[in-house]
């Protein structure tokens, strides 16, 4: 795709966006609809570990949880993907082999993005060579905030090329972009440069995913699809730890983008602590009783 005409992007009404997003916090799902939504959300998880203390054992345990979120009920799940550092991709790939679970890897000097493009592209190619199905790259916020939009476009396009057959998720790190107008512009640049998904955050910077930011990104996806016919996925990440909030995101996706985006092909949650709350809420819906947090494995 060509570099976008950013002058055509209308300014964001921040007050209006926040008011509209707040309406989703008042929405609730009941009965079978809620049960179906909880099960759907579990299939949309990118189960993630991105810590300095990550080990082979921790990644294997996480992969088992992604494959079978609730050991007592094999109809629940699996998760969409597991997300790890490049050095642990091969371990994860072996653990989920033969399943529908994808292996995602962060790259491009995650989470800062502060290394030379040569190294960032090399990291992508290494992760893909190890078996990564998806790459979560982080943009250079410094380049963006300095107004070098074309330079950012070129970087994302080169990262997309380095991915080969792997899908590219572009992390905007919205907590550092300062305004909703910047979020919209960064979304447009990333999609035009070839992003398969746009993603809010690394989870390392506060604020991470929020409903207003996600609303702006979803509207950018809708406008881009209307203009080009190309579907782009969305991944809010960081700060989504309870089922109630996750379901509010799903309602927003359905109303802004429609049912065809309600699958893990087009929507993901980047969350390391959401899984168990979804499982607890699911058990409450099915049995009428809450299970304690210790009932489920901790990852």
Task: Explain what the structure shows.
This protein is α/β, with parallel strands linked by helices and 299 residues long. It has one domain: TIM Barrel, CATH 3.20.20. Helix content is 45%, strand content 11%. The protein is built from eleven helices and eight strands. An eight-stranded parallel beta sheet has the order 7-6-5-4-3-2-1-8. Helix 3 links the parallel strand 1 and strand 2 (81-84). Helix 2 (31-43) crosses helix 10 (243-257) and helix 7 crosses helix 8 (180-192). The radius of gyration is 18 Å and the shape is globular. The termini are far apart. The mean pLDDT is 94.
Core attributes:
299 residues; alpha/beta; TIM Barrel; eight-stranded parallel β-sheet; 11 helices; 11% strand; globular
Briefly summarize what is shown.
The chain is α/β, with parallel strands linked by helices and 299 residues long. It is 45% helix and 11% strand.
Structural class: alpha/beta
Q: Low-confidence segments, ≥5 residues, pLDDT <50? A: none
CATH superfamily, by name, is: Aldolase class I
CATH top level is: Alpha Beta
Number of spatially distinct domains? 1
Within the largest sheet, what's the order of strands?
Answer: 7-6-5-4-3-2-1-8
- End-to-end Cα distance, whole Å, is 40 Å
Q: With helices defined by DSSP (H or I, 4 residues minimum), what is the helix count?
A: 11
**Mean pLDDT across residues:** 94
Percent of residues in beta strands: 5-15%
Estimated helix fraction: 40-55%
Kindly identify the CATH topology: TIM Barrel
Sketch the major β-sheet.
Answer: 8 strands, parallel
């Amino acid at each position: 795709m060509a570099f976008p005409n950013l002058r055509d992007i209308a300014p964001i009404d921040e007050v209006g966006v926040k008011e509209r997003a707040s309406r989703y916090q008042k929405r609730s799902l009941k009965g079978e609809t809620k049960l179906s939504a909880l099960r759907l959300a579990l299939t949309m998880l990118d189960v993630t570990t991105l810590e300095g203390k990550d080990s082979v054992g921790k990644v294997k345990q996480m992969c088992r949880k992604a494959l079978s979120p609730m050991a007592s009920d094999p109809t629940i799940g699996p998760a969409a993907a597991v997300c790890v550092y490049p050095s642990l991709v091969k371990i994860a790939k072996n653990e989920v082999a033969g399943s529908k679970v994808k292996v995602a890897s962060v790259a491009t000097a995650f989470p800062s993005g502060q290394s030379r493009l040569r190294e960032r592209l090399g990291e992508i190619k290494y992760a893909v060579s190890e078996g990564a199905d998806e790459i979560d790259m982080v943009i250079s916020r410094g380049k963006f905030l300095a107004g070098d939009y074309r330079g950012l476009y070129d970087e994302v396009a080169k990262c997309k090329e380095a991915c080969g057959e792997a899908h590219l998720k572009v992390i905007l790190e919205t907590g550092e972009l300062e305004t909703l107008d910047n979020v919209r512009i960064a979304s447009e640049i990333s999609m035009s440069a070839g992003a398969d998904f746009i993603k809010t955050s690394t989870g390392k910077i506060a604020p991470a995913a929020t409903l207003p930011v996600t609303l702006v990104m979803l509207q950018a996806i809708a406008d881009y699809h209307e203009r080009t016919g190309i579907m782009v996925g969305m991944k809010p990440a960081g700060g989504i730890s309870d089922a109630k909030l996750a379901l509010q995101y799903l309602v927003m996706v359905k109303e802004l983008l429609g049912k065809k985006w309600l699958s893990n092909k087009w929507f993901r949650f980047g969350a390391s602590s959401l899984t168990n709350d979804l499982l607890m809420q699911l058990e409450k819906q099915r049995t009428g009783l809450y299970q304690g947090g210790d009932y489920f494995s901790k990852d």
